[in-house]
Amino acid sequence: MGRFADALAAPGLGAIAEIKRRSPSAGDLRPDADPAAIAPAYASAGAAAISVLVDERFAGSWDDLRAARGATDAPLLAKGFFSTAEDLRTAKEAGADAVLLLLRDLDDATAASLMRAAGDLELDTLVEAHDADELERAVALEARVIGVNARDLSTFAIDRAAQLDLLGRIPVDRIVVAESGISSRAHGAAAELAGADAILVGSSLMRAPDPAARLVELISRPLVKVCGLTREDDVVAAAEAGADMLGFVLEPASPRAAERVLPVPDDTLAVAVWVGEAGPSDADLDQVHTVEEGKVRGRDATVYRAGRAVARLLDLPWREREPDNACVESTRALSAHWERAAAAEGRIVLAGGLGPDNVAEAVAAVRPWAVDASSSLERSPGVKDHDVVRAYVQAARG
After folding, report:
1. Residues 138 and 203 in one domain
2. What is the pLDDT of residues 298-346, one digit of tens each?
3. N or C, where is the chain less crowded by C-beta within 10 Å?
């Protein structure tokens, strides 16, 4: 693998940050975009690689790629409609580390020939599919890096659900990129949980006042979950505060039981919370707690997407009674809980005793994939205090 593929294969969700002045679907995005300024800013913001549009339909040119190459040593993807080996040689000479190959426009013989030519030039390829047939072709071509575009290039319509389904079908030995339609941290997380190693983000960055700052926001962790929601106005308040995941307890014995998963904004993820096993719901994720005798639920849980375990929730152990030195014991218990969570492997959702006053400290100690709070954000069971919710989300996100 080359530098581009190596960067995307690194642990965690990577980002390919894109430089483009306009889009055929959205029109002008940032007509005065300067690749020499934006590329190093993206690299400093944590981009695993940088995509540069070189096609005039996007108001791009090969000089844009050359300018980016002169300003950063980050891996660069040349993005255009390439169909000949000469296109790839031009990309290499302009400073590219990788090139995009669109299976929509290439038959298998041409795609295979271009992949070989790219290898001879020491270029990686991002082989892009838009539907199940193209994905099957990409896999059969033994493409190492496969992109799944949520946008139909004929109609420009975005179908994230179809994209997520396709991401989950790609063999685990490939590097997977989710392209287009990602404008929130929850969108990126959904792609990650479906199997993406990286996301390619363009329009939402180029529309932002500060593209690099927007990139930091999209890829930062932890995600923030507000759980125990029972009312629509609390859902709205949590989403407006910036929560990424909204949780609904579907265990009737819980004092925070919801009748159903309420509708959530498109830029968030709904989480159904169960005990023992998951049932049917409209949620994006299922959080299934263990069964514990004498309790409504066990403390820890597994988070599932489409029936596949994708994360673990670690909660503060139950305390059977309050000792005389309750404050000291609570502090010790919380510290031990954070130490256990910090040592755990995989994606960890940290829960238990979190609120505005300590969530930032917890994030610094544990570095979890997500944080989760419920009762500490309430005026009464199942009824959120909107001011406290806002303070919690703000503290968690830094």
Report:
1. yes
2. 999 999 999 999 999 999 988 654 554 455 557 888 989 999 999 999 9
3. C
